[in-house]
Design a protein that fits this description.
With 136 residues, the protein is mainly α. The protein has one domain. It is built from four helices and no strands. Helix 1 packs across helix 3 and helix 2 runs antiparallel to helix 3. The longest helix has 29 residues. The chain is elongated and about 60 Å long. The chain starts with 11 loop residues before the first helix and ends with a helix. Bound molecules: zinc ion (ZN). Zinc ion binds next to loops.
């Protein structure tokens, strides 16, 4: 049985993990590479620099990404709680402080990946775009 590698170009997972344009998977979704530069965390070009795909499809488009972020944060919270519960039981302090530390540390990554997942819900990969842009 042939299973397509999800980490190769042409797959949505590639676009999400590399934070690339969902249509051409070449242009960067975010203007600045460093997610931990909090002043520039959310800076995205209006359109893809390679294929011209509109990254701001409508006003408030990325409000939907908050639902992805919420789900991700919930999954992380459950995982952290189960891990801490294993070592400390129902103690409040270890639970809250480890959860806060992990969520604050991961916030920029969750923020950006949520936006990438959200735009990938609406835009599909188009290999023809790459042929056009590479022949220029
Ligand atoms: Zn593109």
């Amino acid at each position: 049985m042939f299973i397509k590698n999800p980490f190769k170009k042409g797959n949505k997972l590639y676009s999400i993990l590399h934070l690339k344009c969902p249509k051409c998977q070449q242009g960067n979704l975010f203007t600045y590479k460093n997610a931990y530069n909090l002043n520039k965390l959310d800076k995205m070009p209006m359109t893809c620099p390679v294929c011209g795909e509109d990254f701001y499809r409508e006003t408030g488009f990325y409000y939907g990404a908050m639902m992805i972020s919420h789900a991700t944060t919930t999954l992380i919270a459950v995982a952290v709680h189960l891990t801490v519960f294993h070592f400390y039981g129902w103690e409040i302090a270890p639970n809250i402080f480890s959860l806060l530390f992990i969520l604050i540390t991961l916030f920029p990554l969750i923020f950006r990946s949520s936006r990438a997942i959200w735009i990938n819900c609406f835009v599909t990969y188009d290999p023809a775009v790459n042929k056009i842009s590479s022949s220029k």
